[in-house]
């Protein structure tokens, strides 16, 4: 049986007005020393705390096992690119924050120009839109991927109608 998620998603960031400071948004500080010391573990932890999301809720939002998320947060597991995409979508991270995470792992963000063009296009659409549109969820992304004949990011899917 495929896991489904019925709880509300992370709220959109509608309370931001005026100018935003890139350093504060991405790194949480203006200190260059602290920015250079930033790690994926620290960044994901910071983003989760900002959204007030714990390991259990992130697991429900993404379909990633709770133990795997705990190991990611403790720095004891190697990140999976699909899981990182799912985390970015579930936390509704801005593109600059997503790029920051991928850059720290020396990965490229999904790109429509590669071999798996269709899959990358769908994932990139959800990464780009999740900050602005509540309908962009991990479950819907997975459904779109499977409908297109591609492999899903995680085992999470939207509930079927009538159930």
Explain what the structure shows.
Helix 8 runs antiparallel to helix 9 (138-147). The protein is an all-alpha fold. The protein has helices at 22-27, 32-36, 40-50, 55-62, 66-74, 81-90, 95-104, 117-129, 138-147. The model has no long low-confidence stretch (mean pLDDT 85).
* Share of residues in helices: 40-55%
Number of DSSP helices?
9
What is the succession of H and E elements? HHHHHHHHH
Shape: globular
From the alpha-carbon coordinates, what is the Rg to the nearest angstrom?
16 Å
Beta-strand residue percentage: under 5%
Low-pLDDT parts are none
**What is the strand tally?**
0
Distance between the termini: 14 Å
Helix and strand topology:
Elements: H1 22-27, H2 32-36, H3 40-50, H4 55-62, H5 66-74, H6 81-90, H7 95-104, H8 117-129, H9 138-147
Please give a quick description of this structure.
The protein is 50% helix and 0% strand. It is mostly helical.
List keywords for this structure.
163 residues, mainly alpha, globular
């Amino acid at each position: 049986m495929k896991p489904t998620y019925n709880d509300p998603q992370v709220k959109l960031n509608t309370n931001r007005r005026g100018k935003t400071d890139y350093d504060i948004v991405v790194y949480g500080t203006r200190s260059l020393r602290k920015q250079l010391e930033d790690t994926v573990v620290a960044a994901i932890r910071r983003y989760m705390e900002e959204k007030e999301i714990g390991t259990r809720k992130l697991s429900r939002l993404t379909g990633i096992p709770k133990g795997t998320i705990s190991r990611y947060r403790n720095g004891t597991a190697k990140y999976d690119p699909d899981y990182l995409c799912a985390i970015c979508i579930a936390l509704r991270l801005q593109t600059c924050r997503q790029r920051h995470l991928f850059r720290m792992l020396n990965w490229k963000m999904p790109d429509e120009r590669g071999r798996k063009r269709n899959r990358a296009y769908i994932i990139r659409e959800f990464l780009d839109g999740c900050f602005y549109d509540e309908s962009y969820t991990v479950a819907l992304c997975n459904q779109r991927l499977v409908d297109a004949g591609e492999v899903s990011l995680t085992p999470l899917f939207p509930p079927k109608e009538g159930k």
